[in-house]
């Protein structure tokens, strides 16, 4: 299974690529292909040191969409619209959104678009055959990158496509100690996206770093 | 320290009273004093069986407010306004809101009042000297009641009053294995209140019971 990461050289995307690549063929996309190639070189080296085989290929964002079965949009909310305007070819693909519309004001605040969530905005922007799934929203960039530490978090997953949701749940459960939970239809994504500003507030006010979540 | 529970015979209030009473003087309030007395009798018996001393007194909701230093509003959101209209005397008291404005539609949905959260609605309804704190929002009624099981959850606490917040954090940390976290000012409460519909969705779609949360 080929997983393409749009924004794969960004803060979240880079760690995500390294965590996914021992299990899946990962296509790292970037606005600049050279940057994606450099990220992959770095990732392959880092994983090799740890005795892990991997499959990492650096390409443009568009090529990442084109060659993948599953596309992860690892981009900040403020760049979502602009990035999608430059891309096409999402028809029939599973598109994973870890995007959280939020802002740092007096405290971290959930600032959804008028559709109600990044996921529902995506539903409007992408072709109707794209199978949008919300996942990976609340895992800090640093945690993705600390390859020697397990990711011991719960990951809520939303989608209106039952089959796509099960596939994404399967992917989540193969990464480190992540544990996926079905969090309902795509319209329930705002409850998942608004977890992230809460966790950032918890980190800030309790002098913690990279706070994550477990359901139990 | 005297803790009064408005709605202390309700689903959440009853278990809360039993969990708090070995540590604090708990004043259980109810619309009907007799019901509060019966709940206390039951609670005292249940704790006695477990070799735990306790202090539980059943009174009216108004008497619970009057005699307590700290008041917990253990009432569903839909009864919040109606209940507060019948009560007075919150001046200078710490008022804890575990209230979550939500509805069961296709899935559990966060339905805040126009103020943005139950906590900010309370700020409007209560006298300005009341020190409102958001806490205990995401612990299921059943978990409160299962006295033989530890409550091993994280509890986000919001308030604009730093001293009151620290006092509430102290109270939370004395109950079972609860772990309080400062979640910011009162205006950030909507992020805490909207956790509960998320957890109810997680429970529903994964066939789980009484899902709680841990930050780490």
Cα-based radius of gyration of chain A, to the nearest Å? 16 Å
Oligomeric composition of the shown chains: homodimer
Derived from helix and strand composition plus strand pairing, the structural class of chain A reads alpha/beta
Flag low-confidence runs of chain A. none
One letter per element, helices H and strands E, the order of chain A comes to EHEHEHEHEEEHEHEHEHHE
Beta strand count of chain A: 11
Strand content of chain A: 15-25%
Classify the fold: give the CATH topology of chain A: Rossmann fold
Number of distinct helices of chain A: 9
Q: What overall geometry of chain A do the principal axes of the alpha carbons give?
A: globular
In the CATH hierarchy, what is the superfamily of chain A? NAD(P)-binding Rossmann-like Domain
- Fraction of residues in H or I helices of chain A: 25-40%
Mean pLDDT of chain A: 97
Task: Please tell me the total number of domains of chain A.
Answer: 1
Distance N to C terminus of chain A: 30 Å
Main-sheet strand order of chain A equals: 3-2-1-4-5-8-9-10
CATH class of chain A: Alpha Beta
The largest chain-to-chain contact, stated as pair and per-chain residue counts, equals: A-B, 33 and 34 residues
Provide structural commentary:
The structure is a homodimer of 216-residue chains. With 216 residues, the first copy, chain A, is of the alpha/beta class. Chain A has a single domain (2-205), classed as NAD(P)-binding Rossmann-like Domain (Rossmann fold, 3-Layer(aba) Sandwich), CATH 3.40.50. Helices cover 38% and strands 22% of the residues of chain A. In chain A, helix 7 links the parallel strand 9 and strand 10 (179-182). The first copy, chain A, is globular. The model of chain A has no long low-confidence stretch (mean pLDDT 97). Chain A binds chain B through residues 106-107, 109-110, 152, 156, 181-185, 187-188, 190-192, 194-195, 197-199, 201-202, 204-206, 208, 211-216, and chain B through 106-110, 152, 156, 181-185, 187-188, 190-192, 194-195, 197-199, 201-202, 204-206, 208, 211-216. Strand 11 of chain A pairs antiparallel with strand 11 of chain B, so a sheet runs across the interface.
